Fold this sequence. Notes:
Number of strands: 8
Number of helices: 15
Strand order of the largest sheet: 5-4-1-6-7-8
Order of helices and strands: HEHHHHHHHHEEHHEHEHEHEEH
Distance between the termini: 15 Å
Helix content: 40-55%
Amino acid sequence: MKNNTTAQKLKNWLVSQQHIFLDNDGFLFDNTEKMNDAAIFTLRHVFDVEVSEVKKIDVLYNLENFYSQNSSVFQRVPFVASESLKILRQGVYDIGDVAHISEKDIFRMSSRAYGGAFLPFSPIDLPQAYERFEKLVQEYTPHKSNTNMKKIEELIHILQQNVQEYALNGRTGDISPISGERYVKNGITSRFVFEAYLAIYLLIFEPQVQELVGARELVGALNKFCKKQNKGFGLISNRSQDSLIPLLSRHDFIGETMLSADSIFPADPVLGGKPRLHQFRAAIPAGETILYFGDLPTDVAAIKALNEMDGPNTAKVIVIPSKFEFYLDQQGSGEHNFSPEEQNYTMCIAYPTISEVIAGL
């Protein structure tokens, strides 16, 4: 174990906090990168946009314009929306107007805003986009048995409603009667892009999702530890229930020795998810303490908000190293990822160290 100070700190947090909850995407599964791949694939093959050729400054302008015209989309995920705009501005500042979009830019962007960001570069109209989407569904469906077809069919139905409305009435106003969003270009809304992306992710990319190496053992060890210490144990995710439960079930993460079905809290269909606190409030009584395991800045922001609301030391968070966000230095320390204030309640620790500490409790 490279960093004994980090290990001891983790041990203290595991012992002291009353509840231990886990994130799903990116913490238990490798699906955050596959979601990024699905977004790039959808924009390329359905909307004819090669995102790597698009400049940051143009996407920044598009996003600012989109959020100003669709404030409800911004308010659903204000932290994610604000952070994505900040990252784009910083990229333009650092590199200049010639800077192109990176994978991290897409990773940090709200999926509901992909259309707002990239549709202005698309030559495709709504019927053409759906025709391209339909061909992909026909191509991949016969080969996929391990998919959430119920959700995919629901998304296809919504997309078809958009096409039918367009065929009957054309674009008769600025706002789609189906989604309530303003059209971005050629009769297409950002919501349409999101629903096409989600269907393609579920059909093509989610069947490739694998649990992270050691995730199953870690969940089992935490389950055992929490029962022994009489601690609450569960999962809080920004994924919707109709997507979250099938994924966990397919990988056998729900059960007596893993995660209890009644301790799994997906995103609220109206309010959304982290860093807002309604999921934590549903899972944990106000004032009780929590140690949360995640992988993103949204997880850190949620824990910060809990501490601001209920008092210091109410909440702690462990984030694991990831491709786009946090990393360990050569000494195995993750302190450089966080401000001095954040270090009071945040650590970056790799799976092997987490598992080793739990094994020693």
